[in-house]
Amino acid sequence: MTDIGSKGARRAGGLTRRGALKGMGAAAGLALGPGFVRYAQAQSSEPIRIGFQAHRTGIGAAYGRWYERVTEAAVARINEEGGINGRPVEIVVEDDGTDPARGAEVVEKFANQHKTDIVYGTLFSHVVTGSAPAAGELKMPYYVVSEGYHVASGRLNRWVVQPGITDVRSQVTSVAPWISGNLGKKVTMIYPDYAFGHDHRDFFEPAIAAQGGEVIAKVPIPPTESSFTRYFPQIPSETEVIYHVMVGPAVLTFVKEMGDFFGSGGPALFGFIDSLEAVALSSPGLEFLEGSHFWEGMARYAQPDMPDYERAYREAVGIDDSGASLDDPKDVSTAAHMFGCWETLYVIKAAMEMADYKGPDDRAKVIEATEAMSGFDAGINHPQGAKRFNGKLHQCFGHQNISLVENSALKVVHRTSIEDGLYEPEADYTAQPF
Amino acid sequence: MRRPPSRPAIRRLAFAAAAALVLQPQAAHAHAAERGFVLLLPTDYYLFGGGLAVAISFLALALLPPAPLLAAARRRLPLAAGRPRGRALVSGLSFLVLCGLVLAGFTGSRDPLSNPLPLTVWTLLWVGLTVLQGLVGNLWAWLNPWYGPWRLASRLARRLTGRARPPLRLPRRLGHAGAIAFFLAFAWFELVDPAPDDPERLARAVAGYWFVTFAGTLAFGYRAWTRRVEFLSVFFAMIARLAVVETSRAGRAGRRRLALCLPGAQLSGARPLPVDGALFLLLALSTVSFDGLMATFAWLAAIGVNPLEFPGRSAVMAHNTGGLLAMFAALAGAFFAAVALGARLAGGGPPIAAQAGLLVWSIVPIALAYHVAHYLVVLAVNGQYALAALSDPLARGWNLFGTAALHVRAGIAIGADSAWIVWNLQAAAIVGGHVLAVVLAHLMAFRLYGDARRAALSQLPLAVLMVAYTTFGLWLLAAPTGL
């Protein structure tokens, strides 16, 4: 058995990769682990088993690596503090291959084979959407960290909650006031021409209109495109702000070609760091981004006025002041998203303790306890900041960071209010029966 | 209480949900991966230059007399001679290690990057050992997990039955058909199956294949089975012909001589392969090529998949099965057509099958080059995961080799500098492999025709194919990818 929360898992400056959750042997005996001695006196030393649906392989593997590290760090800390209801937390990792069909199979495996208490994970929206029906059928609480609007849209089911990361609709809505007030009111949007880009288009247009601004042109780019110069003439000359959300391997080419096109001038740029998550901003080709702004869920670079709990979180997950791995400075983290794993695990802990969770029969109670929550205070359990939680929507709302690229680093220049990201709710999961 | 839904029911649900995705808003996180940095490099020049280097090599060879090359291929630097012992013991130990790995697959970590079985099979064996075989020779003859158990079992059987020969004979007309079928199954599992990394699934496949092979060696004899059916032995033996270390028989039975030679020198004297053997080698190359192709935007666009939200392997199984077979058919077709056309240009010569069987050996360095180039990053990163996993194979908190807590440095493959280094190593491997292939093909052609001019003429179409394959190989490594 692995040594969750034991000293063996710790190392100066962070956790080792395999400390807390090297995947827990399917048949490995818990009693063997020296880390669990402390729980012997607990009321029930039976561990809480959390199935971690992870992108270990497939298109999401780069995110999966960091989601795993953060999960490992959070679980180690939770166990050090006595676990959940005095019971140690054990993580069982299954790889979903970033594949919706496998995602559903993994949820089923957690329920029927590994007998986990709940399921937690994953990032990619299509995997969440593919797995959610299985979670509903199996009556398995499914805590996701994907920032998709799919949860709050009401399209999933009562067993799926997203309490640790805000959704894309909220993110897009919340940045509109600042863009209109600081960069300009005439916006041209450049986005990949599929669902992800369409979300930004559909959510941002009304949000900027509400601020008296206007999307004056939309430049959808085919997803298979790898050269962009021929699209730039579509940008109207009166454009004050270019809102860009390109993703994929051609992002660097996109930025470079935009720089070649505009030279030292051009409109202001506003982007979502999703485009460059885990990519060093000092990378060649990105020089043109200097002076532009990005949305960041959580700051990648350490900020001078950073609260102590944020510093402690960064230390626990093992990232340096540039947001890269302490052990490997070229391995830039997915800082803007991965905090969601940490915060979600703390919501799970709170919900299970509120529900006085004893075993699988209490799974519905955990969902009800989560639904009863109204928000979370900023602190080490919620290092990204305070959150409001809407139990009917199963979705949290929080502050967003707007950061300036300065000297190839990101400096937070504005933090939106929670209210900036609120929108008219479209769902009420509590009306659904379990 | 309702019964939990069955697995097919879950699958239906998943597919229904996945099918509904097009209508749903979602966040995507397709990541500006390392390929993004390669896209910024002047790869077009490399594609052109690589092809040109291979073309010039061909022209230079056509103008030069083959004698110095033949002399170089014959050079040997003797290292040692003796009667090596302990092969059965080494293989037996390897078998025990395999048992442990399969046990780990069933009972160890569920995480494919923490379980030693997938890391050993896909990274250490398929990637690492292939490269080692190509450098130092046929280690697999010693390391395979069947020789030792087979020796033991066949000796027991001889004592019990008094028979020395295996009970059955492998029909000669089957040729390498068994190896081709098993290799195809292996490649399909690696490239098309939704979860080849899943430890339990892989453990079942490995255990099943071990039993089938063990039974095959007992029934048909070790030599026959491992030379014509056990695909790893066939593949590794072919790759080992490229090595710079040669073992040869030296006089008295059992005595072996170890010598150093130039890369590919052992191949220059190789006997021709039968057509099915040639097909096996072409299959091996085509699968690695398809592994590269299936991740490219070009392939994904061709099969109607948005590369920025790849729907997962389970959604593209039919397309990738077709692609895998089509790639094999295309490469094999192009190779045999080039040989036939070359024979026609040169006017006669030995039968096409015999020419192809000899010339196909020139594919070996290309196959190894693709292997190195394509899996370089996998070897560098997953090799570290393997080191960590092997220290704690059953996820029990052990630290057998002191590497269990290794922090995997993915950074060695991250960023613009790494991308530049990796790309140049890959390009060097691809171009170097093809240049060596042109040299070998030239020597083979000289053996076939005995005349430098006709040999060069016969090589013209194959040289064109190799230039094209060089460019294709570089393009595979430079093109935008969605996986």
General description of the model:
- The complex is a heterodimer of chains A (434) and B (483).
- With 434 residues, chain A is α/β, with parallel strands linked by helices.
- Chain A folds into 2 domains: 7-166 and 335-393, Rossmann fold; 169-296 and 399-421, Response regulator (Rossmann fold, 3-Layer(aba) Sandwich), CATH 3.40.50.2300.
- Helices cover 29% and strands 20% of the residues of chain A.
- Chain A is built from 9 helices and 19 strands.
- Chain A has helices at 61-80, 100-112, 125-138, 168-182, 195-209, 251-262, 308-317, 335-354, 363-371; strands at residues 10-11, 14-15, 48-54, 89-95, 118-121, 142-144, 160-161, 186-192, 214-221, 241-244, 268-272, 293-296, 324-325, 328-332, 375-376, 387-390, 395-398, 401-406, 409-415.
- Chain A has a 7-stranded mixed β-sheet. In chain A, strands 4-3-5-6-7 form a 5-stranded parallel β-sheet, with helices on both faces. A 3-stranded antiparallel β-sheet of chain A has the order 15-16-17, with no helix packed on it.
- In chain A, 62% of the residues are buried.
- Chain B is mainly alpha-helical.
- Chain B has 2 domains: 32-75 and 268-483, no CATH class; 89-241, no CATH class.
- Chain B contains 20 helices and 3 strands.
- Chain B has helices at residues 7-19, 34-40, 43-63, 67-74, 87-107, 116-136, 140-143, 147-161, 177-191, 199-220, 222-228, 231-240, 265-268, 275-293, 297-302, 317-346, 352-359, 363-391, 415-449, 452-478, and strands spanning 77-82, 245-249, 256-260.
- In chain B, strand 2 (245-249) and strand 3 (256-260) form a beta hairpin.
- In chain B, helix 3 (43-63) packs antiparallel against helix 20 (452-478), helix 6 (116-136) runs parallel beside helix 12 and helix 19 (415-449) packs antiparallel against helix 20.
- The relative contact order of chain B is 0.14.
- At the A-B interface, helix 1, strand 4, helix 2, helix 3 and helix 5 of A face helix 1, helix 2, helix 15 and helix 19 of B.
